[in-house]
Amino acid sequence: MLVDYHTHPLGHMDRKISKENIREFLEVAVKKDVSEVGFTDHNRYYEEFDFDLIAEVAKEYPQIKVRRGIEMDYTPGKEDEIAEFLGQFDLDYVIGSIHFLGDWMFDHPDYTAEYDNWKIVELYKEYFDYVRGAAQSGLFQILGHLDLIKVFGYRPKKDIVEIVTPTLEVIAAEDIVIEINTNGMNKPAQEFYPSREILEKAYELGIKVTMSSDAHKAERIGENLSAVKDILLDIGYTEIATFENKKRKMVKL
């Protein structure tokens, strides 16, 4: 079974939500045998959300379960504001993601110069402190692209599993799902988020997973998800997490 739980029909606001746009995403899902698709546009574009329109078009594709979601930026100390914001929507799940460290949007190519101001191992520790906060916030069902900090290929010399394990232990204790996000293959990192060695540690700790492409264009729906399935099975996973009305259901890979 394949699911794609992280997709962006609005992209980065390079298009409006429309029936044609939604159909394009779902048509590709049908072709790639994706059983469930979650539409999860960025919270900063909330004024353009139209979950009713998505639900209307979804009726044309009874073979696909279409889920309502948001990718939500997590900011430490803003938990109450985030909860209030999310409370206005009827959602199946929320993806909690870290795109900003302070006011630095570290995954934007225009701002890579800031990496030179950090010791990379300290940067990774700072980033995963944020991830731990997101896991402990109680706001999210899924954590997005867990090791996004590697996006531009800056890697610590220290063992990554040693750096990430305290965060993974918190994720396991909080019973939060992580996604395997294939979009890292389109970035300088040239690797899924998270890396296989992190996934192996996640499996050891009993952390549940789901799949995503992070597609900002219809043609990327389902991208490399078959490879994700193969990796998960090879590690030992036999199930992935799905959501409806924020209730988790595990389904066979």
Q: Strands, helices and their partners?
A:
Blueprint: E1 3-7, H1 19-31, E2 36-39, H2 51-58, E3 65-73, H3 79-86, E4 93-97, E5 100-101, E6 104-105, H4 120-136, E7 142-143, H5 160-174, E8 177-181, H6 196-204, E9 209-212, H7 225-235, E10 239-244, E11 247-252
Parallel strand pairs: 1-2, 2-3, 3-4, 4-7, 7-8, 8-9
Antiparallel strand pairs: 5-6, 10-11
What does this structure look like?
- The strands form 3 sheets. A 7-stranded parallel β-sheet has the order 1-2-3-4-7-8-9, covered by helices on one side.
- With 253 residues, the protein is of the alpha/beta class.
- The chain is 32% helix and 20% strand.
- The mean pLDDT is 97.
- The radius of gyration is 17 Å and the shape is globular.
